[in-house]
Specification:
The protein is 44% helix and 8% strand. The protein is of the alpha/beta class. The chain folds into three domains: 6-189, no CATH class; 256-300, no CATH class; 307-464, Rossmann fold, CATH 3.40.50. The radius of gyration is 30 Å and the shape is extended. The termini are far apart. The relative contact order is 0.07.
Length: 469
């Protein structure tokens, strides 16, 4: 088969890569044939095109390929030209060789190895090693693409930056793709097998998909596996807690209550207002300002609800919101003079208030799955309300009620009419995507309490209007 130039040959390599990644290898058999001819032309081993063989295995058999895998795209992580002294390089045989090697790395990280219905510990371990080869080839530190240790920011590329074209992708995009890929692998992985191996478990990156899998399977774990599971959950909770604490601190608190006289202490002194109000006492002859009245800043906030009740759906679809709101409950539980109650529910109601200060312990005591009886949970919550106008109730659920929708709506309406600060939450995650009962979405909006979704900051902003930090 003849090609017009190197650029066309390289396009064959990349089209073959796309076909393999998206599972169209059989339909694109001609690309396989052309890629095989290219490998023979460059005197490279045919195993370079094998879609599942590990990079480590390939390098063991063909150690002469080690330099190619060590430096596929020089300067790519910094967004610099790949060849030459700062000038774009034209396509040549070396770029074609690099394209084949780079496509092998991407194929191992995104291709057939990741598409089996069940992922074994061996597959996951191989995937981690192949990702490490990709990171090294892109000039990043180990873990640089998996969020463990930051790599250099910039564009990652396998080709030239000139007219020859090439593959370039923002590092953030590749990070996001690998994070999504790893989460999907974990969901299909024989996780117990991985957790039994301390070395392999140490390579797991704490994430929401991983925490969800661990919470689902914690009853079946023991010994080393259980210890590793707890460590990963604790690590994720601690990391997320720091993020949410910062958001709570940065969010403006409730409005100033000007009906309360300011405290007459030095730290509250309003120096600018004091000077302005006393300007009539200026003595031009002595060049002195005589102050006969001091003014102070108002610092009192609107009345704080004495009680915060968090009612969280512990069904599997709500695990993201459950984790984040459990942590938020622990943060607000540290606020002086605010009592925080935490209730989790499916068809039963579980009182987790004794552990509200420790979200890790709360999560270990939840049991994901089951049906939902939201009305029962709200009835249980209402029994803890003493002063409605000094109480905030946060309900986290998708509002797919196992019982009567109308009864649940009437219960919510009754709570709101009593003076309770009611916050319905449909999802609490970074993407903002959530599925919620449309019937409740419409009626709660008409009631003046639209369902919150998206970043936890939305809920924090609402709570801090009534719960003063």
């Amino acid at each position: 088969m003849e090609f017009n130039d190197v650029a066309q040959r390289r396009q064959v390599v990349y089209w073959r890569l796309l076909a393999a990644v998206f599972g169209f290898g059989e339909q694109a058999a001609n690309f396989e044939e052309m890629a095989l001819e290219l490998v023979h032309e460059l005197e490279l081993p045919e195993l370079l095109l094998h879609p599942t063989i590990a990079v480590d295995t390939l390098l063991e058999r063909y150690p002469e390929l080690e330099p190619d895998f060590r430096q596929v795209a020089p300067g790519a992580a910094a967004g610099q030209p790949v060849e030459g002294e700062g000038e774009p390089a034209g396509p040549g045989p070396d770029s074609l060789r690099r394209g084949l090697v780079y496509s092998k790395l991407l194929l191992n990280v995104l291709g057939p190895n990741t598409q089996t219905s069940v992922v074994t510990a061996q597959q996951y371990s191989q995937w981690l090693k192949d990702v490490a080869h990709l990171e090294r080839a892109c000039g990043l530190a180990p873990g640089g693409l998996r969020g463990q240790e930051g790599g250099d920011r910039g564009s990652l590329g396998a080709g030239e930056q000139g007219s020859g074209g090439g593959i370039f992708v923002a590092e953030e995009q590749l990070r996001a793709a690998l994070a999504s890929m790893e989460g999907d692998l974990i969901q299909r992985m024989a996780l117990r097998e991985v957790l039994q191996n301390n070395q392999l478990a140490a390579q797991l990156t704490p994430s929401m998909p991983l925490v969800e899998q661990l919470l689902r399977d914690k009853a079946n774990l023991s010994g080393t596996a259980l210890a590793n599971a707890k460590r990963l959950i604790r690590q994720y909770v601690d990391e997320l807690t720091e993020v949410l604490k910062l958001q709570v601190q940065q969010t403006p608190a409730g409005k100033i209550d000007y009906t309360v006289p300011p405290k007459r202490v030095f730290r509250n002194l309003d120096l600018k207002r004091t000077i302005w109000k006393n300007l009539t006492n200026w003595d031009a002859g002595q060049q002195r300002l005589y102050v006969d009245r001091l003014y102070y800043h108002h610092t009192a906030r609107k009345k704080t609800p004495a009680r915060l009740i968090v009612v969280v759906d512990q069904s599997g679809s709500m695990v993201d919101a459950m984790v984040q709101c459990t942590i938020l409950a622990s943060i607000f539980a540290a606020v002086p003079h605010v009592d925080v109650y935490l209730l989790a529910f499916d068809t039963r109601v579980l009182d987790l208030t004794p552990w509200v200060h420790d979200p890790f312990e709360v999560l270990l005591r939840t049991q994901l799955g089951g049906g939902t009886n939201i009305t029962q949970a709200l009835v249980e919550a209402s029994q803890r309300i003493q002063e409605p106008r000094q109480t905030a109730v946060v309900l986290i659920t998708d509002f797919y009620e196992g019982g009567s929708q109308q009864v649940l709506f009437d219960t919510i309406k009754s709570l709101k009419n009593s003076g309770v600060h009611f916050f319905p939450v449909g999802a609490m995650n970074s993407t903002g995507y959530f599925s919620v009962n449309e019937w409740f979405r419409t009626r709660l909006k008409e009631l003046g309490t639209p369902i919150l979704a998206g970043s936890p900051k939305k809920l924090i902003e609402q709570l801090k209007k009534v719960v003063v930090m």
